[in-house]
Amino acid sequence: MATTPAGDTRGRRADARRNITAILDAALTCLSRDPDVSIGEIAKAAGVGRVTLYGHFASRAELVDAAFARILQQADQALAAVDTSGDPRHALTDLIASSWRIVARFRALLVAAERELAAERIRAHHDQALRHIRTLLARGQRDGVFRNDLPTSWLVAVFYSTLHSAADEITAGRLREHDAPQMITATLLSAYTPPPDSPPRTTSA
Amino acid sequence: MATTPAGDTRGRRADARRNITAILDAALTCLSRDPDVSIGEIAKAAGVGRVTLYGHFASRAELVDAAFARILQQADQALAAVDTSGDPRHALTDLIASSWRIVARFRALLVAAERELAAERIRAHHDQALRHIRTLLARGQRDGVFRNDLPTSWLVAVFYSTLHSAADEITAGRLREHDAPQMITATLLSAYTPPPDSPPRTTSA
DNA sequence: GTTAAGTCGAACACCGATGTTCAAGTTAGG
DNA sequence: CCTAACTTGAACATCGGTGTTCGACTTAAC
Q1: How many Å apart are CA A128 and CA B27, to the nearest integer?
Q2: Which positions in strand D are less than 7 Å from the protein's CB atoms?
Q3: Of A115, A153, A183, the CB nearest to B150
Q4: pLDDT tens for residues A31-68?
Q5: Whole-model pTM above 0.90?
Q6: B190–A192 C-beta distance less than 8 A
């Protein structure tokens, strides 16, 4: 058995490591299909006994946490790979596209996480990935390309909620997956555009 | 006992009617404080026996449904009272203010509803209230004040998600309740503004 | 080949809130 | 005042997933 708390695969035997990733994979597909799947279902999908699963993950919450962490880590990597050096508006479009792939695919996983994990924990998982967004938005604000009259944290929140809103609209059947990225982009670019009146600009004469 | 399924107070005895509203009131305050309150807690808060509560609401889901319906009905009335005849941008500001009061106060109730009720049911409850938003947005689109390159349903979704996002930000401590309405308004007005390039305009020469 | 690590299935205790039943007590309403 | 409607607390059945324990078996690793 593995009494070790976390999913650190070091020191484990080869078959154990194999099973851990199999369980994680199964958890991902199962949970993103139905946030309420039982542990038994996940174990079965992983081709593993329920007891074995509990040998690696002490509780349902711990499993969900691990699965969720994995996705957000994957998201972090995807966003890190985006070139955000150029025009902020163009970079934003790319970040949206990258984020969207993951959000669209694993939206149900977030529901599972919300059921199982504390709100701050969920936020903590997001932190790394969202930092890419925040960084770009902040730069855009400094450059005067994005509005400066609202705090960066709020712009990040709007980014996040717009993406998830699109996912919900797809689930509800009011939006086609194909159209989502473009709508999100159009919406956010407008939302981030500096308002016509007050704030100081650096670009204009 | 009351075998009648719903909360129709007609034909009930006076004390029964009184209890029903007391229960509903208690459910509202309790659920919006903690989405996971037990039925017993709600009954106690209503000054009523648990059995009495079950006499009026057959299940937890039914109670949540009724409480949720009540709030959305209240929201519907509040929105209906807003004068939306003038400048769409100004009217939107008013609708946001009205909506916000309710969203900010009962955000936790939505969480409870999401746990207990089917997604379509939740949507159905929203329908009436959201219709006011939709109507105004559609008019603004026709008038060329709001962008026409995105479907009205999407604009409604953005409205909804931005409000709730603000509520979440407050819960997370990243936003002060006082600042929310202004930020929401600024964000949505920008988001709804027609993009500079393509679409046909009626106002400009 | 030896050993420790890992796996397996079955069986179990647990849990806490939900929802039900009962018989006795109140209260509204005519 | 009489009756039917209503309330009440206590006690109970239930329920399904969770998490644990067991002893026997397999497999990786050296």
Answers
A1: 38
A2: 5-11, 16-22, 27-29
A3: A183
A4: 999 999 999 999 999 999 999 999 999 999 999 999 99
A5: yes
A6: yes
